């Protein structure tokens, strides 16, 4: 494949790529939506009185029509700032009477100027979902910090994409050791990104990586798993970009060491399955910070695809916003062919929409050990019980967390093991419903395969969960003497 070195020209980058306003007090940078892209028909957005382009994300047919009916697209705006700004949003055909601005933890104070227009202020970088009609046709607002030390066209070892639409040859960008892929603000790059056996690689910028051209499981390179795929890589960094319309798992580090993912925004929903946000497979020393993920399938899944690759170890996900329309927020297990998964933490997470399956599913098989997992300071914006029966109940619960060894269809018929799991400071807020935490042991091992499961300060619609709460269920083979506790 021919290497793409400098895409675009410096003058175009200077004139188009860095829109914005400067002042003695601070700076705001906005980015144009390139010609050929679809501007949002639903929203007009003004930042400190200046109108900015609002881009769109496609929604697949399965979600554009009943039973989901999320509309044919949703919208987003991205900009950089280092000062407080005032935002005005005007909707077309969407009444703002009951608009929600999520996450609720951001405490955004809304002023309604008219039935279709609101105004609010933000003090600095943040991510918000503005929802006149719930999941249907929201506006996502991505306010970044100012970009530092951005590459320039012609810099060595930089694959540079200037503002505009780009279709690299073969639909694929291959990254070698020491290289940076840079997507400038206002760039839309229609391609997958892949790296194998590479060290010290970076993907960054304020542009968009788009998979919209390809159908599900039909990416540009046969045999490559994932929209952005790293195999046997060391010291991988991703920062700042928007990834939309993935045709497969979106970001997939496989047997990697030292992965740093910050401030990316994953915006999917063209398909019903296999558009997972970040799938960490047999990888170690991973930090995921300040990300936004919307998927139909799992937002974050931790897997062990191959037994001869290394274990999963030292993973931190924090300060992030997660949204799944059908599946899990966090999945640990299923593909459990790693020797173990351990030292995994989820901290300061806002779950703003949930699917029909358990929000947190810890389900190791293949005799894999899942150990030392911490889920702390998580705020779940729940939405009542899912439709249909699950586990044979006519009125199904909404499984908040399910923790159990299980030989799933993705593993051999052997149970995994679970040790030292802690949920602390968890809030579930939503309509009345059965928001259930289930701990279930392996029947044929009489719970010898799980121990030290703790729930501390779990609040469900303001009520603290206890061992006797209807929201807490222990399966018939669980023995409380194995240190299963709720406090």
Could you name the key traits of this structure?
487 residues; mainly beta; disordered N terminus; Dex49a from penicillium minioluteum complex, domain 1; Pectate Lyase C-like; 2 domains; globular
Task: Write up this protein.
This protein has 487 residues and is mostly beta strands. The chain folds into two domains: 138 residues, Sandwich (Dex49a from penicillium minioluteum complex, domain 1); 329 residues, Single-stranded right-handed beta-helix, Pectin lyase-like (Pectate Lyase C-like, 3 Solenoid), CATH 2.160.20.10. Helices cover 2% and strands 48% of the residues. The protein is built from two helices and 43 strands. The strands form four sheets. It has a 20-stranded mixed beta sheet that branches. Strands 16-19-22-25-28-31-33-35-37-39-42 form an eleven-stranded parallel beta sheet, with no helix packed on it. Strand 12 and strand 13 form a beta hairpin. The N and C termini lie far apart (58 Å).
Classified by CATH, the class of the largest domain is Mainly Beta
CATH fold-level label of the largest domain: Pectate Lyase C-like
Helix content: under 10%
Low-confidence stretches: 1-18, 21-25
Q: Tally the beta strands.
A: 43
Span between termini: 58 Å
The helix-and-strand class reads mainly beta
When the domains are counted, the total is 2
**What does the radius of gyration come to?**
22 Å
Q: Based on Cα principal axes, name the global outline.
A: globular
Q: Give the percentage of residues in beta strands.
A: over 45%
SS field, number of helical segments: 2
CATH architecture of the largest domain: 3 Solenoid
**Biggest pleated-sheet summary:** 20 strands, mixed
CATH superfamily of the largest domain: Single-stranded right-handed beta-helix, Pectin lyase-like
